[in-house]
Amino acid sequence: MDETLFMIKPDAVEKHRIGSILAEVERAGFEILDMRLVRLRPRDARLFYAVHEGKPFLEELVQFMSSGPVVPIRLRREKAVQALRDLIGATDPREARPGTIRALHAESKGRNAVHASDSPESARAEIEFFFGDGAARR
Ligand code: ADP
Ligand code: MG
């Protein structure tokens, strides 16, 4: 069994989609190991997305991700990282396969409802970010 980090973003929280998104995740066979509701400060949003430092959309992303509460969730399943990426669909909802979480809930490439780790390495780091020692101050 592998773990991955899933996060419901501020646009989906604002639209009261937490319950239906979690239902889709549980239906796909994921086990919820831990979960929080937290409002990120801009500096923590920037830290979380440090791999995107220098990208033209980073400021917009940091502003969006700190604009309201997010729900980070620690998930477990067989082949969790790839299975969750398949379940959420492409970054841009216009390119997301029908039935995926982003096809159903995302508004745009920026406001795209959810995040999922893209590799086992980033899953470890992102789980640590929200659930490890020191995460309590976020
Ligand atoms: P993913 O979330 O699918 O792994 P990326 O890691 O490429 O996608 O990007 C991280 C997040 O940054 C995206 O989910 C999206 O919210 C935002 N983003 C990416 N590209 C753009 C863009 N061109 N314009 C606005 N926001 C973007
Ligand atoms: Mg990514």
Helix-strand blueprint:
Elements: E1 2-8, H1 10-14, H2 18-27, E2 31-35, H3 42-48, H4 58-65, E3 71-77, H5 80-88, H6 101-105, E4 114-116, H7 120-131
Antiparallel strand pairs: 1-3, 1-4, 2-3
Adenosine-5'-diphosphate binds at residues 57, 60-61, 91, 109-110, 112, 115, 118.
* Main pleated sheet: 4 strands, antiparallel
CATH C-level class is Alpha Beta
Tell me what portion of residues adopts beta-strand conformation.
Answer: 15-25%
Determine Rg (CA atoms, Å): 14 Å
Along the chain, the helix and strand elements come as: EHHEHHEHHEH
Q: Helix share of residues?
A: 40-55%
Ligand identities: adenosine-5'-diphosphate, magnesium ion
Count of structural domains: 1
Q: Strands of the biggest beta sheet: in what spatial order?
A: 2-3-1-4
CATH superfamily: Nucleoside diphosphate kinase-like domain
State the shape: globular
Question: Termini, distance in Å?
Answer: 28 Å
- Secondary-structure-derived class: alpha+beta
Family: Belongs to the NDK family.
EC number: 2.7.4.6
Binding site for ATP: 9, 57, 85, 91, 102, 112
Active site: 115 (pros-phosphohistidine intermediate)
What does this structure look like?
By secondary structure, the protein is of the alpha+beta class. The protein is built from seven helices and four strands. It has a single domain, classed as Nucleoside diphosphate kinase-like domain (Alpha-Beta Plaits). The chain has a four-stranded antiparallel sheet with strand order 2-3-1-4, with helices on both faces. Residues 57, 60-61, 91, 109-110, 112, 115, 118 line the site of adenosine-5'-diphosphate (ADP).
